[in-house]
Amino acid sequence: MTLLDDPVTPVPTGDAAVDNVLYADHITIKFGGLVAVNDVSFAIPPRSIISLIGPNGAGKTTFFNVITGLYEPTEGTVFLQGKDITGAKPHARAAMGLARTFQNIRLFGLMTAEENVLVAMHPHLRAGIISTILRTPAQRKEEREARDIARSLLEYVGIGKAEGELARNLSYGDQRRLEIARAMALQPKVLLLDEPTAGMNPQESGRFNEFVHRVRDEVGLSVLLIEHDMSVIMKISERITVLDGGNLIAEGTPDEIRSNERVIEAYLGKTGTREGRRKA
Amino acid sequence: MTTSKTAPQVSSHLPSARRTLSRHGWPIGYVVFILGLFLLYHSLVPNLGAGFAGSITSWLPVSVVNESLMWVIMALGLNVVVGYAGLLDLGYVAFWALGGYTAGWLMAAPFNWTWDVNVMSAVATKGTHLNFWFVIIIAGGLCALLGVIIGAPTLRLRGDYLALVTLGFGEMITQFFKNSNDIAGFNLAGGDGGISIVDPVGTGPFTSLGVPQKLLNNTEDNVYKIIVLGLLVGVCLFISLRIREGRLGRAWLAIREDELAASMMGVPLVKAKLSAYAVGAFFGGIGGVANASAITGAVSPSGFDFGKSVLVLLMVVLGGMGNVWGVAVGAFLLSWLNSNGLAQIGTQLDSWFNTGLQEELPRYNYIILGVLLVLMMLFRREGLIPEKRTKALMTQPSRTEMESVGADITEAEAVEETYEASTSGEDAKIAASAADISPSLAELEGQMVVADDAPVSSLRTGYPQVDQRALPPDLNGRNSASNVLGGFGLILVLVAVLKFSLIGYFSYEVPGFVVVLVIGLLFIAAAVLLRIRTRRIIKAATAPSKTTPSQDEEMAR
Fold it and tell me: Are B113 and B187 a contacting pair, CB within 8 Å?
């Protein structure tokens, strides 16, 4: 268990489910008669930074919840590294390498920063009830190593000093960092960030932009962002997927999206970036 | 100014040296405590003068010590479920019952379907007689199994629903044992009569030291039970303390904090909750056997009522959810009050004021415990000895909460940011202007709220500068609570003053208006006290504080 695994670059096989870290194949979600997401296919290639955008009610969050396992899709399949995870529970997906942060921070407030990170290492630790009570050498070694990793993760996101502080006492920015450290403790293949720059000023979100790229390059994971702030989206992402009314209306590089007429009409044209941001 | 610290810091660097010491030092302290208790009753009390020894044995008889120790086991078990994992369980008595009946089946006078077996038991008559310690382990295991069976379908529910379903299961188990004398013609557990006599604890090799072979229910033998029950409590304490530290304990805490986030971080919810349930049930089983064998010497369904579940929950809440020591103290205290304390307090009051309360007080135990709970919730919601984390939750708003209520940026932080950003020219300017603006802005806002001559620096958040930590977030709640308390107290006093003119209305006699009067007055006193406290807090908050260090600094400028 090292913090920075050297990723192996796979040879493309031509099968979307295998070539991409995460592949959502023709997802449809209906709530009663309401179609929230309509036949959307979506891929996250290895070591990429992808954004999912769309006006309010476009089905972003619903789609996100299908990926994380909160909803089961009415139709379609989700693959994580070639494995079908459509029916898997959220915790199983997390253990398989799907980590996320939350739009409105959901840390374990009464646990220390270090403990927060350690919780996310749950799937990677083995100690059971008996060995914990007896505090066997194996359990102690495991705990020690886990703590070391947790500390190094906190250092990595820049809050190493706060390891013993209760999460609820951290400042807003540090809480966001802690959420990312916690997500990274799962040793994810895909990191899902739900509006990570909400509440940040331009300077901070600029710094965040650098940070995401650094994580991607050094840890070798893929990042999926949901974001409302267009300036952040355009700077940070390599490819952008646009949803509107549950349909996928465009997919491409930031430049392509910027000049895509359907996007302008559906997203920028109607609501405009400012309004979109405010509603978030 | 730049050095002033504004962020609310809890002194919560948890892994401190002191904590490590208490983590490793407690077994010694605990052993000393139990041995001291044992020696007190074994050697000291019989040799003391009659007066002093009498007051010890009447205030805290050995049997009550034993019973309290048994309740500590139960409370520790429920603490794992409620305190650690945050699952409200209102049917905990089910495990107590099953533990008791396991003792009834495996170590009792001949029961109709059990076999003639004797495994290292002190009792040699016909019937199944297993050694007490074997039964403890078997009952613990059985209860853990029952916990998993009950938990598997119910633990998928959340919060209130879980509480209701566990309540149902608790009642079901009791009803099951009530009707267990005829299960398709088969007498499983003796129905209403239950199973008696359950074997007393055997002492095995210790008989050579002059310990009686069987610990029967008399004062002399009860003294030795302190060691037996103390050992069981010690084991439960040990398990409770250690299990909290590891992978599983963290998972429980995370579930208690935020279930959804925990599952998203790879914690298998059902499995983790089931293990909390199983551990809690294990303790419940131990408590059941200890109760049946060492305390009552029999099991019958009448003892396993809903009130017991509530009592155990009360012990956990009063003691301090999540804190093992608090829970143990809470259990000991409540159990004492319930079994002996109230009567003894009554006797004492009788001897002073000639009131006749000895009979009355125990009759009102649930009222008194209820009042105690109300008072605790008002003045010390976190429990007698709270868990460090919970205390932080209940006494201080979280930092983000505070920052969203007050200004986003306090003056000192703005200055700090200026300093931080001064490396890059443009940002520094912006930050500096922010620092300039914020006091004047705050001044504007502040004048709307407080008296005009308040020092500027105390107005930086638009609210007067108070230590927000000292300000409870629910002042309104406190006022209405005090109203309710006072109103209820007034009613009680009225009822008492009218001397129960309604007595004829009830079919039973309602005695002792003194008790009602006193309780009513207590309520009113509590209400007044609460009012005064709230007043004081508000006063402290609104009055411009004259001695704040920031003002001194202001003057120095």
Answer: yes
E strand or H helix at B340, and its extent?
none
Of A68, A132, A169, the CB nearest to B264: A68
Cβ-based contacts of B248 with chain A (< 8 Å): 127-129, 132
Q: Please answer yes or no on whether B250 and A119 come within 8 Å at the CB atom.
A: yes
Are the C-beta atoms of B82 and B88 separated by less than 8 Å? yes
Specify the pLDDT at position B546: 45
Buried b (16+ CB within 10 A) or exposed e, A34-47: ebbbbebebbbbbb
Q: 3-class SS at B464? A: coil
Between CA B483 and CA B488, with CA B487 as vertex, the angle to 5 degrees is 120
Instruction: Please judge whether A123 and B266 are an interchain contact, meaning their C-beta atoms are less than 8 angstroms apart.
Output: yes
B257 inside 8 A of chain A by CB: yes
Contact B261 A106 (CB under 8 A): yes
Residues of chain A with Cβ-Cβ distance to B20 below 8 Å are none
Contact A105 B400 (CB under 8 A): yes
**Burial of B325: CB neighbours in 10 Å, binned 0-12, 13-18, 19+:** middle
The C-alpha atoms of residue A262 and residue A269 are separated, in whole angstroms, by: 9
CB-CB under 8 Å, B14 with A122: no
Measured between CB atoms, does B10 come within 8 Å of chain A?
Answer: yes
* DSSP H/E element including B129: strand B128-130
Nearest Cα of chain B lies from the Cα of A69 at a distance, in angstroms, of 9
A222: β partners:
A190
Measured between CA atoms, how close is B322 to chain A, in angstroms?
Answer: 12
Of A122, A132, A133, the CB nearest to B266: A122
Number of other residues whose CB lies within 10 A of the CB of residue A237? 24
Under 8 Å CB pairs connecting chains A and B tally to: 129
Q: Using CB atoms, pick whichever of B248, B249, B392 lies closest to residue A110.
A: B392
Closest CB from A120, A139, A168 relative to B266? A120
Cβ contact B251–A143 (<8 Å): no
* Residue B171: pLDDT over 50: yes
Residues paired with A77 in a beta bridge? A25
User: Residue length, chain B?
Assistant: 557
Neighbours of A141 (CB within 10 A): 10
Stated length of chain A: 280
pLDDT in tens, A139-158: 999 999 999 999 999 999 99
Would you say B224 and B203 are in contact if contact means Cβ atoms under 8 Å apart? yes
Q: Specify the 3-state DSSP secondary structure of B454.
A: coil
Instruction: Write out pLDDT tens, residues A190-232.
Output: 999 998 888 888 888 888 889 999 999 999 999 999 987 788 8
pLDDT 10s digits, A37-77? 999 999 999 999 999 988 888 888 889 999 999 899 999 99
Q: State residue B498's pLDDT score.
A: 60
Burial of B148 (0-12, 13-18, 19+ CB in 10 A): middle
Query: In angstroms, rounded to a whole number, what is the distance separating the alpha carbons of residues B306 and B89?
Result: 12
Spell out where chain A has E strands. 22-31, 34-44, 49-53, 75-80, 83-84, 98-100, 190-194, 222-226, 239-244, 247-252
Three-class secondary structure of residue B409 per DSSP: coil
Locate B302 and state its tokens: 């009448």
Half-sphere exposure of B447 (CA within 13 A, CB side): 8
